[in-house]
Amino acid sequence: MEKKMNLSFIASLIVGLGALILAFIVEGGTPSGLLQPTAALIVFGGTLGALGCSFPISNIKRLPKILGVLMSNQKQDKAAVLETFIELSNKIRKEGLLSLEVVLNAGDYDPFMVSGLQLVIDGIDGENIKKTMEIKLENIMERHEKGYSMFEAMGGYLPTMGVVGTVMGLINVMGSLSEAADLGPKIGVAFIATLYGVGSANLIFLPIANSLKSIDAEEVALKSMIIDGVLMIQEGANPTLIRERLKGYLEDEKESQEIRE
Predict the structure, then answer these.
(1) Spatial contact of 226 and 116, defined as CB atoms under 8 Å apart
(2) Rounded-to-integer distance, Cα 33 and Cα 189, Å
(3) What pTM value is reported for the model?
(4) Cβ-defined contacts of 254-259 (< 8 Å, 24+)
(5) Which residues of the chain have pLDDT under 70?
(6) pLDDT tens per residue, range 140-198
């Protein structure tokens, strides 16, 4: 698995925020006019409080780590996994099943694959191998869901907190109606809270949730491919059958055609 900085997400975020700020400036506003600490406190502080009421603190502590997963673009190389299973199958046919143990200890393989193949080496039957690996996959999916669901929740709380901040600002405005000259700026400041809530939800938190879902789907597909490959190794399938079946997991048709025959 190759890890690189997720430049696409960062660039898209900059483009989105930049477009909003540029449009605001073109309409005669100034960047400093968008900075309202009180509105930020209401919106983001209120959202954090709502998040703490919705999820256990153990999940919330994982937020920095989850963001780290998003920021490092993890390339799921299914073609490499396919080639690995073909190579292992050929090795077993030549040297026997126990030769896998030496190879797995010496190589840098996916831990999920290693744990499955170790069950094969230990002589566990296919049904139990499948159940064991599927349970591990379900645990991975559950952990991922806990991560992206927090960002989805924040994406829902933020617009509401923005409206709350705006209402609180308008309450202050209504209390100073006698100062007519100051009403315009005060109303503008009140609506900054709505901008913070709606803007951050739709430009930051909901896109983060969707990106994490995409990463989860890619990993689940890779792990499902590994389960299938491990079971075929356990069954003693020949390399040709392994190649043809696992090629079905490759989404890129060109990538599939380039698999060595």
Answers:
(1) yes
(2) 8
(3) 0.82
(4) 255/78, 255/79, 256/79, 258/79, 259/79, 259/82, 259/83
(5) 1-5, 73-76, 175-186, 251-261
(6) 999 999 999 999 999 999 999 999 999 988 887 776 666 655 666 667 777 889 999 99
d(CA 141, CA 15): 31
Residue 233's SS3 state is helix
**What does the CA dihedral 179, 184, 187, 193 come to, rounded to 10 degrees?**
-140
What H or E segment, with its residue span, contains residue 109?
Answer: none
**How many other CB atoms are found less than 10 A from the CB of residue 95?**
12
What six digits make up the tokens of 261? 């025959």
What is the distance between the alpha carbons of residues 5 and 221, in angstroms, rounded to a whole number? 22
Within its chain, how far is the Cα of 52 from the centroid?
21
The three-point CA angle 196-58-220 to 5° equals: 85
Residue 150 contacts residue 63 (beta carbons within 8 Å)? yes
The helix (run of H) or strand (run of E) holding residue 235 is helix 206-235
Q: Which 8-state DSSP code applies to residue 75? A: E
Measured CA to CA, the distance from residue 69 to residue 110 in angstroms comes to 17
| 3-class SS of residue 223 | helix
CA distance 70 to 155: 17
DSSP state string for 3-59: EEE-HHHHHHHHHHHHHHHHHHHHTT--GGGG--HHHHIIIIIHHHHHHHHHS-HHH
62-80 residue pLDDT tens: 999 998 888 876 666 888 8
Tokens of 213: 């879902």
